[in-house]
Amino acid sequence: MNPQVVVDGLINGALIGLGAIGVTLTYSILRFANFAHGEFITFGAYAAMAIAGGVATLVVGSDAGLGALSISPALILAAPLAMALTAGFALALDRILFARLRGASESISIVMASFGASMAIRAAIEFVFTSRPAYFTRDLQIARPIAFGLKATPNQIALLIVAGVLMVGVHLLLSRTQIGRAMRAVSENPALARAAGVDVDMTIRFAWALGGALASAAGVMLGLLVQIRPFMGFDLLLPLFAAAILGGIGSVPGAFAGALVIGLGEALTVQLAGAEWRAAVAFLVLIAVLLIRPSGMAGRPA
User: Fold this and answer.
1) How many domains does one find in the chain?
2) For range 107-135, the mean pLDDT
3) Does residue 200 belong to any structural domain of this protein?
4) What secondary structure does DSSP assign to 142-175, as a single string?
5) Where is 290: in which H helix or E strand?
6) Per residue in 7-20, pLDDT tens?
7) Which structural domain range is residue 99 located in?
8) Among 38, 80, 123, 223, who pairs with 228 as Cys (CB 3.0-4.6 Å)?
9) Which residues pair with residue 145 across a beta bridge?
10) Has residue 173 been placed in a domain?
11) Distance from the Cα of residue 178 to its chain's centroid
């Protein structure tokens, strides 16, 4: 086995992990599978591209890469703004659609609503930006040796570091802060949390915002490493759910660990069987987990 599969798997797993956090938070707190989450990834990537174009012209004055990276200063400024914009978009979607259905309908109604929202958002993005692939940069990077015969481009190394920092930050947020404790309480028992004085509505809004911001970060990373297109988030949807279920619904570290397993499995499958079998990995993992341990790696057995 080529050891390079480890680098490819870690990078792919980091992308999936950032998106899977939003999936696991939404499911654990609101108890429904949000099929529109993939579109948050796409929205974030296009938002960053649009903002970077304006920032490059008005503020930075150049879209050239920064040092060995092909990441421009404009994109570095645009990425946090896109994360904030995607968080606001997720909150708006919840207020306009899901909040109206919460508590008054069966969960299947909310799931179908999320599926319809996914298609509508994807169609709107394709209408505005067309289906032609777009790129943050067209600069080609050469992979450089890092250790043990492994190679990675400067962009890949930088994005792995960013993903790691975001993951640690989210873990500390959920484990060391008041809002994190509130989210865990609402996940366990919303009625009891409300009786204990937790602002459940505010906690739900925060979960939507956090999930949207992290999805945007995943979209920017994916756009930098591959390309930006309307179906980029939809294509990640199955791996996102597989990672969240494998890790254990409600567990952020579990979701990231599950994403690394999915990422490494996809990279290994591409090397051994071909890229056309890549999508089957998440599907097979999902079936295996549901049959053998539905609670996932970090979940509690029923």
Assistant:
1) 1
2) 92
3) yes
4) --EEEETTEEE-HHHHHHHHHHHHHHHHHHHHHH
5) helix 278-292
6) 888 889 999 999 99
7) 26-145+154-238
8) 223
9) 151
10) yes
11) 24
